[in-house]
Amino acid sequence: MTRTVYYTATTLDGFIATPEHSLDWLLSRQIDQDGPFGYKDFEKRIGAVVMGASTYRWIRRHEPDSWAYAIPTWVLTHSRDLEPFPGADIRITAADSPEALTTLHGELVAAAGGRDVWVVGGGDLAGQFAEAGLLDELVVSIAPVTIGAGAPLLPRHVELVRTEWAVNGEFVCVRYDVVR
Ligand SMILES: NC(=O)c1ccc[n+]([C@@H]2O[C@H](COP(=O)([O-])OP(=O)(O)OC[C@H]3O[C@@H](n4cnc5c(N)ncnc54)[C@H](OP(=O)(O)O)[C@@H]3O)[C@@H](O)[C@H]2O)c1
């Protein structure tokens, strides 16, 4: 059964990017992508992707000449200046209510074809899914750094149950089920 998973890396103080949307605190660190909780395994689970506008802009800025995902991707925004990467299956839309998010979630699950849905971020978007009762799992890789301010990991009250954890390189990685 399809699960909807927020899989991300975070600082110890709960930020997924600096206020300037930098990930330098993350990209400089040692992690084995083939190791426990690594991206290589996670990638095999997912059949559809959803992300917010800032995350999409970051990816386009950092990889201007390619698009990493061969699976359908939804980008949420109200802006009209976002364009899909040419040739990629990218759907730009808005979901302004729990009902709209639930409809979108149905499309994500259908597109995932039995695999999982990846909520890439940001944290508020993951929070919207959680609040609408649509988030099943949180997987965080915690970097040994604090940055004091930035884009929050999950700025909502969400109750979680730890199901698994491991050490990978510099990171402590934890899997949680979301309590409904
Ligand atoms: N550490 C990691 O592994 C990791 C993972 C993911 C992301 N990141 C980074 O974290 C930062 C996240 O940025 P962020 O906090 O600004 O979050 P974001 O979700 O990437 O972008 C927020 C924007 O998404 C749009 N949005 C969100 N929910 C929407 C909805 N329901 N309907 C329509 N539009 C919606 C809005 O765009 P408009 O204002 O255009 O309407 C909102 O301003 C980025 O820098 C990203 O690169 C890091």
Automatic annotation (TrEMBL):
One of its GO terms (molecular function) is 5-amino-6-(5-phosphoribosylamino)uracil reductase activity. Residues 8-158 form the Bacterial bifunctional deaminase-reductase C-terminal domain. GO terms for biological process: riboflavin biosynthetic process. It comes from the Bacteria. This is Dihydrofolate reductase. It comes from Trujillonella endophytica.
